[in-house]
Request: fold
Amino acid sequence: MSSRSDVLCDAGPLISLGKLNRIEVLAELYGEVQIPHAVYDEVVTSGLAKGASDAMIVRLFLQRRKWPIVNVPQAALASYTPSVVLDAGERAVLALAQTMRDPLVLIDDEVARSEARRLGLPLRGTLGILVQACREKILTLAQTEILIQEVSIRRDIWVSGKLCEQVLSELQRGYDKPEPA
Reply:
């Protein structure tokens, strides 16, 4: 489990892991993850209104885990001016992360990821979460390969197929090396 005390999650990883029915990986890796209200509204409230099955999976998971749905202080939102256009959830995650000592930001959107990098925030996306779960033996290599391949072909998960191939290749290369004696 990660030693970071503050893990914040945007909509992308919640939606993707919900669609893959692997959202529990977040709990196994990080213990507790904070979800800003704007992200909850995007994933669960709007998702349920649209009939998205992953919205129900995420809602049930969050209820069972009792993870905090957090309010982002108005001062944090007011003092943060992004250099790019972000949606409300991305903005809330990045504004809140800047108020924390050692946050980890879980986020998929490439524009939002570049903004997080600009701010010097550590980040990880859905594929990085799956790779970390594999490295920490939460998922097997075979499970991780199948999940990344599924991400690659699903039209309802917005992660680049090319990026999936690259991550899969790097992951497999890491497992091809012989164990040190």
Notes: The mean pLDDT is 92. Residues 97 and 138 are 26 Å apart (CA to CA). The beta strands are 6-9, 35-36, 69-70, 103-106, 123-124.
